[in-house]
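Appendix B. Chain record.
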Amino acid sequence: MAEQKFDYENEEELAMIRSHIDAILEGLENNRLVFKTSKEEIILHPESPLKIKIKAGKKGKECKLTIRLAWKERYKQGDDGMISISSQESENRAST
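Structure tokens predicted for this chain:
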């Protein structure tokens, strides 16, 4: 499968950053994160266990906080919930 990436960087007000973080938290609770712009979209399905890495630093007036989450998806992309059952004579498609 081809690699998918989503990359976004912007300077925004604290209220907007909170909104983004709230949406990420909601997505983690629902096991579905959708990142979308007019040009790209990626859908992730976070599952336990997740790895978390937190870095914080300060150099003069410059501050930085990095939070990284990583996990392995067991969800199969493209799975439409349908199965194919066939015999030598016919092929039936049924939902699961």
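Further analysis of this model is presented in Appendix C.
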